[in-house]
Write a structure and sequence with these properties.
Distance between the termini of chain B: 12 Å
Order of helices and strands of chain B: HHEHEHEHEHEEHEHEHHHHEHHEEH
Number of strands of chain B: 11
Largest interface: A-B, 53 and 74 residues
Number of helices of chain A: 3
Helix content of chain B: 25-40%
Distance between the termini of chain A: 47 Å
Strand content of chain A: under 5%
Strand order of the largest sheet of chain A: 1-2
Radius of gyration of chain B: 21 Å
Structural class of chain B: alpha/beta
Oligomer: heterodimer
Largest sheet of chain B: 11 strands, mixed
Strand order of the largest sheet of chain B: 1-3-2-4-6-5-10-11-9-7-8
Radius of gyration of chain A: 23 Å
Number of helices of chain B: 15
Helix content of chain A: 25-40%
């Protein structure tokens, strides 16, 4: 039994910027549904007044002086990009239909 | 005589003493890889000329009486979600296929500085998401003890390579058990250090508040040796602890030590064969003067739902960077949104998609408090359980896994697979150090692991108890025989 509708799965996939084929949507409905069912066990646990633990260690955000230090060259940084033009990364039109 | 199963400690000693040649050790390991890894499937990219040049340089330094590092000539494989400058790094994912990193991870930089030989990258479940290495986009890794069984995961390639004598040691990563569980399945030692002990700079992020790098080795002493090299503060990782790693020893001395047995880890669902070996381990420790204490970690059962909310939530955010723009594969598309959708749809495998979806579900507006925030509150309760346990014991002993390695395809649904992580997850949620040490072979001839969980920063006690277990009930000279000629 799934607690997720097809439309919900498609909405989540869009939020995650993930294209799913029709059969993947069906599989997600079943599999995510089962996981969400399993998660229901936490509903019954009282956490009144418990501070959420975002991180395993108490550590202050370390700061350093704002001084330029040597870092990766532009050429190295761009080497893995699928498409470049000089020092720029080339991407398709941001607005559909625009050049 | 083969050097394939020498410990890292012994290889470094021989190389430094001039009793063994780094070049010959490298050549033998490369021959073994060629001979056995076609069937084992533990490795992805293999290093070429550059590692040979390193071995030649080690020989030169030795002959010139220049100082050599603690890992001189030790052949090491690196899980492929740890970046290696100039050596292809994929995280086991099609979305990063062929990516050659322009920078070095801190851990590999430290291994190189210690004169290790970085010989290859090890297979893994895609982005570390899985418990059997079946989720790698590239190949299946087999368990060297029985090739119809999984090696565990996600550091399955690292564990299989070390167990099979294709490397003296390996680095893995552990987000919910990914070092300890494959170590248990393949009969190696695996240490997940305290969160923050080891730099995550250059480690491809899965769940940033849980991920930690650690060694997989054939001996407890080797685990200590590698941990000593890779641990320590790194200004490039803001979660790296500014704490010196004290010199570690592996004196198997447990007299007077209070070893806690959490009852929740010995309840229903634990395989009888595993239980039998754990009982023998407990008896051995008792005989050596340890005090055995019964303890309770009452929120243990909630670790699984808490982990499978928190880890996917962090993953859904971390994996947003794979968008086909700056690195990795890009799908052909008409506009930018379409590039994102299609690149990610084509580049990620089913398990990664499932976790991104789960994480996005848990984090979305209106659901955040019910899932993510609640899971973090449960995480606090789990940590509190451990804090209270330390009042009555110095270290905890549990099974690493509910059963020995299973056959390929045995876990029918994703949830079945997740349930196998039941004993390893809480350690990551609480940020504690955890060690898996072999404690015998099952009736079916597969390794079984005992897990030690320690106080934050107390890797030392884990290694001492681990050494005692190794000496009393470890695998000794037993070697995997799943592939002909391996041992």
């Amino acid at each position: 039994m799934s607690s997720l509708t097809r439309k919900e799965v498609e909405e989540i996939a869009f939020l995650a910027r993930l294209h799913l084929e029709a059969d993947e949507v069906s599989a997600m409905q079943t599999e995510l549904g089962a996981m969400i069912e399993h998660f229901k066990v936490i509903d019954g646990i009282s956490c009144e007044g418990v501070e959420p633990m975002t991180h395993p260690i108490a550590i202050d955000l370390p700061l350093r002086e704002d001084i330029v230090e040597p870092s990766m060259s532009t050429a190295d940084a761009l080497r893995g990009a699928p498409k470049v033009d000089g020092d720029l990364i080339v991407v398709p039109a941001i607005i559909p239909g625009a050049e | 005589m083969t050097t394939a199963f020498l410990s890292a400690t012994e290889i470094a000693r021989r190389v430094k003493a001039g009793e063994a040649s780094a070049v010959r050790i490298l050549d033998e390991m490369m021959l073994r890889i060629q001979r056995f890894d076609r069937e084992l499937g533990s490795l992805l990219a293999i290093a070429g000329d550059e590692v040979r040049a390193t071995a030649v340089e080690i020989e030169r330094k030795r002959k010139a009486n220049e100082p050599l590092g603690p890992l001189a000539g030790v052949p090491i494989v690196i899980k492929d979600n740890i970046v290696t400058k100039g050596l292809t790094t994929t995280a086991g994912s099609k979305i990063l296929a062929g990516w050659v990193p322009p920078y070095e991870s801190t851990v590999v930089e430290r291994l190189r500085k210690a004169d290790a030989l970085i010989i290859a990258k090890a297979n893994l479940d895609e982005f570390g998401m899985g418990s059997s290495t079946e989720k790698s986009a590239f190949k299946k890794t087999r368990n060297p003890w029985n090739t119809s069984h999984v090696p565990g995961g996600s550091s399955g390639g690292s564990a299989a390579a070390v167990a099979a004598g294709l490397a003296a040691a390996a680095l893995g990563t552990d987000t919910g058990g990914s070092i300890r569980q494959p170590a248990a399945f393949c009969g190696t030692v695996g240490l997940k250090p305290t969160y923050g002990r080891v730099s995550r700079w250059g480690v491809i992020a899965f769940a940033s508040s849980l991920d930690q790098v650690g060694p997989l080795t054939r001996t407890v002493a080797d685990a200590a040796l590698l941990t000593q090299v890779i641990a320590g503060h790194d200004p490039r990782d803001s979660t790296s602890l500014d704490q010196l790693m004290p010199p570690l020893d592996t004196v198997g001395q447990v007299k007077g030590l209070r070893i806690g047995l959490p009852k929740e880890y010995f309840a229903d669902g634990l395989d009888a064969d595993v239980r039998k070996h754990l009982d023998a381990t407990i008896d051995a420790l008792k005989q050596q003067g340890a005090t055995i204490v019964d303890v309770s970690l009452p929120h243990t059962a909630l670790a699984l739902p808490a982990y499978y909310i928190i880890a996917p939530a962090e993953a859904s955010s971390n994996l947003a960077r794979y968008d086909g723009i700056r690195f990795g594969k890009r799908a052909e598309a008409q506009d930018l949104l379409d590039v994102y959708m299609k690149t990610r749809g084509a580049g990620f495998g089913p398990e990664v998609k499932r976790r991104i979806m789960l994480g996005t579900y848990a984090l979305r507006s209106g659901y955040y408090d019910a899932y993510y925030k609640k899971a973090q509150q449960i995480r606090a309760l789990i940590k509190k359980d451990f804090d209270e346990a330390w009042a009555t014991c110095d270290v905890l002993l549990t099974p690493t896994t509910p059963h020995a390695a299973y056959r390929f395809g045995a876990k029918a649904t994703p949830l079945d697979m997740y349930l196998g992580d039941v004993y390893t997850l809480a350690c990551n949620l609480a940020g504690l150090p955890g060690l898996s040490v072999p404690c015998g072979l099952s009736d079916g001839g597969l390794p079984i692991g005992a897990q030690l969980l320690g106080k934050p920063l107390d890797e030392q006690t884990l290694l001492r108890v681990g050494a005692a277990i190794e000496a009393a009930v470890g695998l000794g000279d037993k070697r995997p025989t799943g592939i002909g000629g391996l041992a």
